[in-house]
């Protein structure tokens, strides 16, 4: 069975005011002091962010337990220095990002200017194991139409600098300002994929291979496909659903490749429109159907995703759990809907952050 690992970026905030706090270095120092040799937590582009990575897991219940444990550990380390953590993909409150001390990050700021300083956004990256680069590229080519659906499921960033952005996933609109971000054309072979990445680096526009910010890519560090479209999810159960669907999509795509089925090619222009629709509305309006690229109600698209990956979900033992999670998601909504619901109830973005801290910390 394919293994799955999850990387989550969390927002560090003042537990009273809800304002983001640039205390990542202090939190990491506390984590190293409490657990020498720990390799779970890492710094990110800005001091208001903290990242953790799970171990590869084959059982989704175990993966969920580890995500919850990592969130609680992050909250414990942060709490020791008077800070809280929130699984928010953007800060609802205004913030002036503090760039982490790092030569690479300094290069980004000098190279790209203002867009770098607007990248205080938190995502969820899912790594799914593949047997080879050839299989991985075949999977990437076949995942492309389904990635906007994952975007819609995970959408958790409706507010930006103290304002309603109008988007369910405004993080994705900010992230796509990087020159290498977004959907890709089919690559067809691993050799063509590697050549494209090398050509991109050789332009000098990006620094290195790690800056190839495709929506899904071959990992440069692990034998995995890395799916990068998701916002960090407010609830750990949503992160597990995203991971479950990612594994099922990878397995389904690999089977299609082995069976000789051609990869669909709706074109990057249509994929960008599908991604925009998902980011704008999340699950509240139509999505573009991954097969027809025409509007279709979001619940029907999600159930089509379950049907498309049904064999893989069944064989991994995830079908019933995924179906329950999707129906619950359609009933209660994603993180964007919940944040807006909290604002309507409390009238305060600070109260929204406070409640999200409470839910993140369990």
UniProtKB/TrEMBL annotation:
SUPFAM superfamilies found in the cross-reference section: Glutamine synthetase/guanido kinase
Enzyme class: ligase
EC number(s) on file: 6.3.2.2
UniProt feature coiled coil, ranges: none
InterPro entries, sorted: GCL_type2/YbdK_subfam, GCS2, Gln_synth/guanido_kin_cat_dom, YbdK
A Pfam cross-reference name: GCS2
Keyword line: ATP-binding, Ligase, Nucleotide-binding
Keyword GTP-binding in annotation: no
A single GO molecular function term of this UniProt record: glutamate-cysteine ligase activity
One GO process term, biological-process aspect: modified amino acid biosynthetic process
Catalytic activity: L-cysteine + L-glutamate + ATP = gamma-L-glutamyl-L-cysteine + ADP + phosphate + H(+)
Role according to the record: ATP-dependent carboxylate-amine ligase which exhibits weak glutamate--cysteine ligase activity.
Family according to the record: Belongs to the glutamate--cysteine ligase type 2 family. YbdK subfamily.
Protein name: Putative glutamate--cysteine ligase 2
Source organism per UniProt: Streptomyces argyrophylli
């Amino acid at each position: 069975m394919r293994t799955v690992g999850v990387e989550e970026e969390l927002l560090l905030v003042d537990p009273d005011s809800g304002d983001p706090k640039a205390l990542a270095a202090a939190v990491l120092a506390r984590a190293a002091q409490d657990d020498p040799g720990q390799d779970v937590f890492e710094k990110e582009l800005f001091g208001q962010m903290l990242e953790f990575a799970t171990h590869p897991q084959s059982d989704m219940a175990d993966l969920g337990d580890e995500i919850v444990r990592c969130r609680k550990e992050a909250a414990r380390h942060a709490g020791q220095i008077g800070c809280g953590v929130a699984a928010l993909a953007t800060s609802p409150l205004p913030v002036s990002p503090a760039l982490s001390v790092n030569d690479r990050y300094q290069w980004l700021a000098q190279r790209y200017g203002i867009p770098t300083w607007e990248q205080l956004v938190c995502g969820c990256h899912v790594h799914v194991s593949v047997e080879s680069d050839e299989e991985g590229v075949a999977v990437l080519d076949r995942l492309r139409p389904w990635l906007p659906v994952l975007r819609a499921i995970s959408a958790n960033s409706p507010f930006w600098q103290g304002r309603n952005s109008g988007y369910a996933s405004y993080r994705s609109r900010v992230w796509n300002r990087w020159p290498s971000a977004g959907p890709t054309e089919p690559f067809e072979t691993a050799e063509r994929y590697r050549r494209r990445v090398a050509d991109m680096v050789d332009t000098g526009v990006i620094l290195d291979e790690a800056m190839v910010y495709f929506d899904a890519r071959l990992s440069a560090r692990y034998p995995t496909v890395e799916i990068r479209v998701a916002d960090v999810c407010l609830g750990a159960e949503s992160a597990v659903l995203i991971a479950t669907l990612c594994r099922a999509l990878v397995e389904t795509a690999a089977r299609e490749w082995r069976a000789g089925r051609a990869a669909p090619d709706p074109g990057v222009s249509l994929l960008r429109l599908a991604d925009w629709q998902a980011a704008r509305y999340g699950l509240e309006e139509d999505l573009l159907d991954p097969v027809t690229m025409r509007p279709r109600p979001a619940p029907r698209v999600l159930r089509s995703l379950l049907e498309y990956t049904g064999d893989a979900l069944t064989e991994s033992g995830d079908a019933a759990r995924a179906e329950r999670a999707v129906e619950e998601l359609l009933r209660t909504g994603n993180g964007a809907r919940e944040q807006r619901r909290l604002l309507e109830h409390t009238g305060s973005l600070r109260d929204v952050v406070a409640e999200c801290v409470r839910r993140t910390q369990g």
